[in-house]
Amino acid sequence: MTERTYNIAILGATGAVGTRLMSQLEESTIPVNSLKLLASSRSAGKKLTFKGQELTVEEATADSFSGVDLVLASGGGSVSQRFAPEAVKRGAVVVDNSSYWRMNDNVPLVVPEVNEADLQGHNGIIANPNCSTTQMVVALEPIRRAFGLRRVIVSTYQAASGAGQTAWDELVAQTEAHNAGEKMVANILPVKGSDKHYPLAYNLLPQIDVFEDDGYTHEEWKMIHETKKIMFGDKNSKSVKVTGTAVRVPVPVGHGETIYFETESNTGATSAGIQQALSQAPGVILEDNPKKQLYPQPINAEGKRETFVGRVRPDLENDDSFHMWVVSDNLLKGAAWNTVQIAEWLVELDLVRVPVGAAGKFEA
Q1: How close are the terminal C-alpha atoms of the chain, in Å?
Q2: pLDDT by residue, tens only, the chain of 364 residues
Q3: Is 334 one of the annotated binding-site residues?
Q4: What is the pTM of this model?
Q5: Which of 37, 178, 224, 322 has the greatest number of CB atoms lying within 10 Å of its CB?
Q6: Which of the residues are catalytic?
Q7: What three-state secondary structure class fits 256?
Q8: Where do the annotations place NADP(+) binding (predicted)?
């Protein structure tokens, strides 16, 4: 039987994640028949290369998705809100990187190492989680399976690139200005379009996204509810308690997280047992040898697909409680690679098709 090949579109192809979607797709197991690169009108006409072939970026319109089997989207929430339903209406399955569809009850929120089974029964749109959530659940899932999970408290150390290429560029410019004794200019962080902006170079910003009425930022809200949806199938699940603080740090690429977690009692959880579970888990690399100063670092994780875990240790004040340090490339596992990985599973499971009537679930 002839192997099926797929017509694929990348929406938001010229951004930091979009270009990485191309490179991850090049290295994937997906048999590509054709690739269409889509972006805004200002990026239309740019030339990008895929598998040695020069492709021209086109302006995205609703009809761009005619004849497309699979869309890898990284164009932002408003773009996905507009175009994902149009793609589904034309028979394409969409794997979306934006936050727009993540909490929609008709859309599975997927990290393949944790819940690839949720791809079954999709309605044409699959959501890719927040980058900081993704690496956390990859590290927590083998622990949950072995010892249960009652509580999670996370503090993040998130790279500038998590806010986009412009934030990354601004960090570089601020560093150069500071080193030259010049004033650092801030126009983007902590939130583009907000009243105040602060430099990230030589600084820490305890705000990622806007503040909610309860004092948590929307990034923190996302980590709480996305974790519950991915691991327990319900964004408001009471099966685990999750809270956190998200901080932007002057690192170009690679998010770090300190995670405190409580296992179920009477499961015999130990640091050694947790390390064993992590060492055997898909997508995880254990780097944990304090005597040799071996632990994950963003500079070493950049360009890699895996999630790196180290500094696993017991909490000395609370039973069945532990700490660990987790690092991953936020542009790869946190975005582009997780998206392509989902697409690989869709192909593997023969799920690259839109069920009859599914498009109606996303009509305004």
Answers
A1: 41
A2: 568 999 999 999 999 999 999 999 999 999 999 999 999 999 999 999 999 999 999 999 999 999 999 999 999 999 999 999 999 999 999 999 999 999 999 999 999 999 999 999 999 999 999 999 999 999 999 999 999 999 999 999 999 999 999 999 999 999 999 999 999 999 999 999 899 999 999 999 999 999 999 999 999 999 999 999 999 999 999 999 999 999 999 999 999 999 999 999 999 999 999 999 999 999 999 999 999 999 999 999 999 999 999 999 999 999 999 999 999 999 999 999 999 999 999 999 999 999 988 888 897 5
A3: no
A4: 0.96
A5: 37
A6: 131, 255
A7: strand
A8: 14-17, 42-43, 161-162, 330
